[in-house]
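User: Round two. Same drill as before: sequence, then structure, for each protein.

Assistant: Same drill it is. First protein:
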Amino acid sequence: MTMKELAQMAGVSTAAVSRYLNGGSLSQEKRERIRAVIAQTGYQPDVVAQMLRTRSTDHVGLIVPKLDSDAVTRVTAGATAVLAKEGYLCLFADVHNDPDRELAYLTLFQKRMVAGIIMMATVMTPRHEELLRSASVPIVVTGQQFHQVPCIYHDDVGAATELTRLVLRKGRKKPAFIGVTEQDVAVGLNRRRGVQAAMQEFGMDPDTLPVEHSSFEISGGKAAMERLLAHHPDLDAVICATDRIAFGAMEVLRQEGRRIPEDVSIVGMDDNWACEHISPHLTTAHFYYKASGETAAQLLVEMMRNKNQPGPVHQTMLGYTIRERASV
């Protein structure tokens, strides 16, 4: 059924139907007649056509690096709860840690006229910078600090520094770090810098820190731990950029007969739900991912409401809490 047919059945103009569907002013009599016909016929408006006419939508795009990540789950839970209360529906894009797919979805979502975008970012390339700068809809980035872009990010340096201090206070002398690509500034570069800052505080040469890079998977942590042990068999502490990496590293240490924490202390970051279900329980840094999703969504809603009134570029850093458990 078309809007014109609905209008004929209700005995009103198509303009009246349009005002009814879009919350415009209308007499109570016409409103009741239109409502009765919609209830009788089950009429559903053509949302795409409505978007094309009004150039507006109640959809928000969420671009995430990987849906099976505990951190991503918490960010999206926070964001979708806020957006649902504000009447927005969410379209998810899982880019599988592929920057090219991230760029493709940034372009696609703008062409499909979403009202705004939340992006859990990993890397910033010149193309990312160009797309973010020229975006036709409001965009909020979470997890990274990108200059000139509204961001909600975490104190990655501070968390890594405090975790490393904790390990070194236990008397460890030969720490190592398993990170990720340093194109990911937050997780790769900043968390490594935090480890080195703590080493310097304890009178160690930060340039002597053994570093191996991993994927974000448990298998990556296993492979990186194997490489570390091959080149640094005397290491007595491992700081891992994520908990999943730490889970893989712990498995290799056990296979090699290294006791945790008697022989080797190990820590992760993110406070994955499994940290309290492995043995020994993993010491980690809890980042407030759900709060970051909520804060990003609140900021995006404000930006969408004031789209034609440019305001300040908000950049908010959230804190962390160290969860000290049995692995140190």
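Second protein:
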Amino acid sequence: MQIGMVGLGKMGANMTERLVKGGHDVVGYDRNPAAVEQVVEAGAGGAESLEDLVSKLDSPKHVWVMVPAGAPTTSTLEALAGLLEPGSTVIDGGNSFYKDTVSIATKLAAQGIHLLDVGTSGGVWGLAGGYSMMVGGDPETVERMRPIFETLAPSATTGWGHMGPVGAGHFVKMIHNGIEYGIMQSYAEGFAILHDKEEFSLDLAQIGRVWQHGSVVRSWLLDLVVNALGENPALEGIAPYVPDSGEGRWTVAEAIELNVAAPVITLALMQRIGSRDEVEFSDRILSALRGEIGGHEVKQDS
């Protein structure tokens, strides 16, 4: 099957390579020419622009977009809408906000262009192990793209599925990432407690390796913790600054809108936001209040 791939960052490039190895005809485009050269070396075709990419695709045309969510995705989809003919299919494989997906899908549908939203998980490990894909869109279009999904998934029958209409794929991936926030926070807190129990001189990587087999907390995320601690036991050089790319915020907002309690995911998000407060002004307020209320000693900056 032929497909165009727009966005050849690490994940997009790995997906392209997996598709090529699976026997598909892939044409790749990225604003970075070096990224295009990389996938060409892996066996894909290369394009110098979106126009060039579209011109190299047979009809009906299929294009998978792997660019950052928000304005980059919106502008790319709008540009493709002006280049593709009716009957074409565009797949947004990024972490777009599902309401934005529904909106742009309506605009594309008016031009006869199908949009599938595919929440994609697997990161840099997907090249070897396959990707988990949560697909939204009309059933006919999903079925037409089945060969692509079966190649990118861990197997033809596992790791991917049709979640529902347009927007459902990104919605499910949003909740997936919110759950991930909570799990990651639990591991972080648990290992921090182990780390600070200094009289036991605990080997954190060894503990993680024990938990990897038979333990009820074993998981792929635990495997990644073990990898990180094995390479850098003290995590030297890593700043305690944790970004978020939006999905956790959207999950918390959706929980509030649906009146569903989600305290763990919410607190995990707050911890990430708190990690970026270099001034820690709120803590200064708390210290000052203790001084004002009870005359407690206020520790001064050194």
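Strands lie at 2-6, 25-29, 45-46, 62-65, 89-92, 114-121, 132-136, 160-164.

User: Perfect.
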